[in-house]
Amino acid sequence: MYIDTHAHINDEAYNNESPENLLKRAKEDGVKYVIAPGVNIESSRQLKDYSEKFPGVFFASGIHAHEASKFYEKDFLEIKHLLEHPKAVAVGEVGLDYHYEFSSRTLQKHVLSRFLKLAISIDMPMIIHCREAEEDFYSMLKEMPKIPRGVIHCYTGDVKWAKKFLDMGFYLGFTGIITFNKSEEMRDVVRNTPIDRILTETDSPYMTPSPRRKIRPNEPRFVTFVADKIAEIKGLKKEEALPVFVKNAEKCFGIELK
Ligand SMILES: [Zn+2]
Hints:
Layout: E1 2-4, H1 19-28, E2 31-37, H2 41-53, E3 57-61, H3 73-82, E4 88-97, H4 105-122, E5 126-131, H5 134-143, E6 150-153, H6 159-167, E7 171-174, H7 184-191, E8 198-200, H8 223-233, H9 238-253
Parallel strand pairs: 1-2, 2-3, 3-4, 4-5, 5-6, 6-7, 7-8
Helix pairs in contact: 2-3, 8-9
The chain binds zinc ion.
């Protein structure tokens, strides 16, 4: 069994293709569960509905770094409420993105800080997006009364930062990037991450793994290539590695996957 711990199954890249089809194709390839993070209030609401309709879907709710300039107090309150839902598994996707910097760094930090505090106060894991912002993210964590738990998804930092975040207790999520020819550095991070701290994800609709690189948008079924590649890097048989990835997701998000 495979799990895709990060897929935006309601992204506009799917051109309104029914999530039913995405999930059906995923299931055919052994991907039974998908965690779908909201990036704003609208997508969070929609993913909550999907989670009620589809047994294999869990959701997270947050405001993405890209959307930090559209942070409203009333949305924050609604997100807090959505997170009480039985199929809500994490606060997210939230974080810092200094690569695109669609919102100012100050604003991104302000919004992230609200969600860090929220996750700590309601004791929920987080799904963190951190792109070219490791330094600031790390100092923000240090200022918190307590280090929250969760995953740094689509990890793109170096080995040195990976070690620091692993020491703080975080899981690292890896995507199709690790299958790209040029990504030797990222495979090195996988080598240096203990297997029991790795989550498998697609970050669909982005990051299509290289064996299917012509297929856009990416979709949850292709998490198989990510998981198989991690097993290969770790020198493990698939039968050994795949149950570990499922168990990691269960532990990280406090869910039971059967
Ligand atoms: Zn994402």
